[in-house]
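Appendix C: a fully annotated inverse folding record. The material below is reproduced so that readers can follow the format used throughout the book. The structure is listed first as tokens, followed by the designed sequence.
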């Protein structure tokens, strides 16, 4: 048989993580609450759903490969130039493109130990070497990341802010300081998948033409379009232009392009979602505290629940919840894996959690 490339040969068989659908097939039962993937249970704006319906009749067409209308809407929304924006198949897709632009064998890339695994997956896929920095008190360690990038001459630092899986958030001034302290040869890959849930004035102000930063945003979380696969990156035109060399020509489908544009235009709905999410997080906190567990303050649409007794106990709680058909996830490494991660749900899911969690915790404690 023809040999796989050396990079592919070196890769593990697995994808970044196992989907809830796989788990449902394995367990031969459906989840009753889907609280593990940080999806937006409130869904997109009704205006978006109308647009999706309209767009379906044009499904026979190739969409605009340049995503022009959507890029223009994004530029207007942020007060940026269209040259500073690239649209792609969600942040996940764009992270892959970023790695393709900068990562090859011999290139070091810095991230936090236990941070978003899909980024790592792409780095390894292009033959890069991951250098990991531990979290500090459940926050990604900004100073540690910059230090490590200096030490190993890292090409990229990956930082999710707000963070996944812990939900913690560094305020704008901290990130602005980080940007001004980056080593000359390092690019900051700033994943802001949850930015809409943070307080707007707290997001960092970064010159879009700064050649050391690319920021990533998505329609999957606050805008409720995870299944559509659409996101964007903001960065200097030189880097943004390079994405055009390598991106899938028709990567973003016609429904996603149109839905995302309408989603962006309905900021009133977005506000109602972020308010509902804030309310639900307070509910989850009450439920969790009632069971004698603690939450980690979250700037996202999920809550990391500190189960307080190490990995085995957290895993038991997670496993029991899954046995009750509640889909949740947990961080993969020490010391984050003393936590489980619960995404925001609607009343129905919160009620389930309120009824089930106390029993589960009790059972796991014995
Ligand atoms: C959910 C998530 C993503 C995925 O975003 P898509 O646009 O759906 O690909 C990226 N980064 C982080 C940190 C996430 O939690």
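Designed amino acids, in order:
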């Amino acid at each position: 048989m023809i040999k796989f490339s050396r990079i592919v040969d070196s890769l593990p068989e697995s994808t970044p993580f196992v989907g809830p659908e796989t788990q449902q097939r394995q367990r031969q039962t459906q989840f009753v609450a889907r609280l593990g993937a940080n999806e937006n249970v409130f869904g997109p704006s009704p205006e978006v759903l109308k647009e999706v319906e309209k767009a379906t009749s044009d499904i026979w067409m190739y969409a605009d490969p340049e995503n022009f209308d959507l890029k223009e809407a994004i530029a207007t929304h942020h007060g940026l130039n269209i040259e500073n924006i690239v649209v792609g198949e969600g942040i996940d897709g764009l992270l892959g493109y970023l790695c393709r632009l900068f990562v090859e064998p011999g290139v070091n890339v810095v991230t936090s130990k236990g941070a978003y695994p899909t980024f790592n997956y792409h780095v390894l896929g292009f033959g890069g070497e991951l250098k990991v920095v531990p979290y500090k008190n459940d926050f990604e360690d900004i100073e540690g990341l910059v230090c490590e990038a200096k030490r190993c001459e890292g090409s990229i630092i990956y930082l999710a802010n707000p963070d996944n899986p812990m939900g913690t958030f560094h305020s704008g001034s901290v990130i602005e300081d980080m940007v001004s302290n980056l080593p000359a040869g390092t690019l900051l890959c700033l994943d802001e998948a949850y930015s809409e849930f943070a307080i707007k004035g707290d997001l960092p102000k970064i010159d879009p033409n700064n050649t050391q930063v690319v920021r990533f945003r998505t329609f999957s979380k606050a805008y409720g379009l995870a299944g559509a696969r659409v996101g964007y990156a903001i960065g200097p035109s030189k880097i943004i232009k390079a994405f055009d060399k390598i991106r899938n020509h028709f990567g973003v489908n016609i429904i996603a392009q149109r839905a995302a544009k309408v989603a962006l235009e309905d900021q009133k709905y977005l506000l109602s979602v972020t308010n509902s999410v804030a309310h639900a997080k307070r509910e989850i906190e009450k439920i969790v505290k009632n069971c004698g567990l603690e939450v980690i303050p979250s700037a996202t649409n999920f809550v990391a629940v500190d189960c307080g007794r190490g990995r085995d106990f957290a895993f038991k709680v997670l496993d029991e919840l899954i046995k009750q058909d509640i889909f949740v996830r947990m961080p993969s490494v020490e010391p984050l894996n003393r936590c489980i991660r619960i995404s925001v749900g609607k009343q129905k899911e919160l009620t389930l959690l309120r009824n089930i969690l106390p029993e589960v915790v009790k059972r796991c404690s014995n």
